[in-house]
Amino acid sequence: MALKVIGPGAGAPAAGGCASSGCGGSSDALAHLPEHIRAKVHNHPCYSEEAHHHYARMHVAVAPACNIQCHYCNRKYDCANESRPGVVSEVLTPDQAVKKVMAVAANIPQMTVLGIAGPGDPLANPGRTLDTFRQLSEKAPDIKLCVSTNGLALPETVDELCAHNIDHVTITINCVDPDVGVKIYPWIFWKGRRVKGRKGVAILIEQQQKGLEMLVARGVLVKVNSVLIPGVNDEHLKEVSRVVKAKGAFLHNVMPLIAEPEHGTFYGVMGQRGPTHEELQALQDACAGDMNMMRHCRQCRADAVGMLGEDRGHEFTLDKIETMEIDYGQAMERRRQVHAAIEANREAQRKKSGETFISPASIKRTRKETRPVLMAVATTGGGVINQHFGHAREFLIYEAGAADVRFIGVRKVDLYCAGGDSCGDAQTALAKTIRTLSGCEAVLCSKIGFEPWGQLEAAGIAPNGEHAMEPIEEAVAALYQELAAAGRLEQQAPVAERMRA
Ligand code: CLF
Ligand code: SF4
Questions:
Q1: Is the beta carbon of 66 within 6 A of some atom in ligand 2?
Q2: For 218-317, where are the alpha helices, taking DSSP H only?
Q3: Which of 24, 327, 392, 399 is most buried, by the most CB atoms less than 10 A from its CB?
């Protein structure tokens, strides 16, 4: 039997499932989905992990108001249900937003999805949100439309969303029990008045569940976002996952709480901590038994532009857009060509993956035990290892085992190599990066400098630039074999684990 490369992505089974196989089968992570669902997700960078290596999304910040209060939100910042706090978006009118979307679509042809995710709640601003969608469904029919909401106003908006061809909706559901919810939501604004405490939370939960059921009944793909708040809803999220899955949600995205005192949120000021990488992964794994889990979310801002993990918003400020002449007919033709090239490249990668036979037999001959190994990967997209270690702002984390390779999550880091006179800062950033990669035993990148090489090795993380430009999962599997052949898998535990112990 071959070493399976578990194709990442929405709809891919949890570890142990074989969505893609090195044993000659299809390596398309979406292959098991019905054709009409596959058509909806194959180029949506959030609904398919595989797609996020190739396609981009953008948000337009047209929705400033909100109808609830979350303890992790400060209205100064974007809606933290779909964003990380600490960034603020400039609010656009629907006309400005449409112009911006068409400019981005023409200049970043791999942008396939327009989402509205804030900076408040999109459905608490129905006029602005729906006007933007209505115009775009007419003027740019090749762009998928997507919305993210807290769900309070969802049931009353479902029909209009469907009328504008919005077939991806995210609902943030942090609880299905008002007794848990009162620790997260102090009040909601409902029918012209503020409803506090348990009563308000019960209304919110009822509306979220009703909205979910209505969307599923209409064939809309629903993703559920949940903010993991240790000690508040961590255990409860398993029940949330079970309930929303039973009602037909397509995907569950458990996001870590980000709470810092300087954000001025209730949780930040009260010292509520966010989860560790290990806690987040453990909960995602626990929920995965019931549900397809999203693990590649970047908690992007309400005006994000580009591939997940990058932000090209500065290229499309209002003053720059004003000067752009867009012929959208021509742009659509170019977009079609670019998408065809991307699909050809994906198909070639799948074929290569299907042809690569990685036998664990060689591992078995050399090992006393084959334990799973975490590896960090530096990539700018395209599904290959193509980024310099010092230029990475995030690392994708994969777990390689004797039987499979699976995607685990994303860890963000400060830029280590900024050039110029920033060497002192670089040392601090490097030390932080190495701490962020704790638990990993190897890092794969296109290149790496002498200094970080030494420090990574000293921390028990093997730097590796030998697999530059190779498909990620293939490279991870190959490095696992190399580590096994070098006797590294016979060690009892990586340095990071020993240090924790
Ligand atoms: Fe935007 Fe959200 Fe649509 Fe994606 S983001 S509205 S589903 S197009 Fe994606 Fe960004 Fe995570 Fe959101 S990575 S924060 S899940
Ligand atoms: Fe803030 Fe979003 Fe919650 Fe509204 S729904 S309070 S904008 S995090």
A1: yes
A2: 236-246, 266-270, 277-288
A3: 392
